[in-house]
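User: Before I run my own analysis I want an independent prediction to cross-check against. Here's the chain; please return only the structure tokens and, at the end, one sentence I can use as a sanity check.
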Amino acid sequence: MTGPEVVVLDASALLAWLFEERGADVVESLLPAAVLSTVNLAEVRQKLDHRGVDADRTVRRLRLLGLRTAPFSDDDAARAAGLWQAGRRIGLSLADRCCLAVAGRLGVPAVTADRSWGGIDLPVEVRVLR
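Assistant: Structure tokens:
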């Protein structure tokens, strides 16, 4: 029997789950084996702080549910920079490209709530929640 599929979550996907937005049910099923880049962790923490949510407590809760973080490496930085040209027409942010770079390194799909990711040919499998 195999376990849950490993995916890299974009900050938008994790925030959809945290704030009970459309697609939250999909993210919930992925959490036990999900990975979040440390760059996207910073983005999630910032959004939580902005909304007055205790980020430390929330991150502890996420870790109990199985979410792991992946450090962002020099090779990931090169991958993210290499995605700039392809992603600029749809407005991929640096954090978006960091998520895609980590997913590429790990060889697993990236999951996002950002529909614009579906409209671009990327070297990584992308799954859009909504």
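Sanity check: The mean pLDDT is 93.
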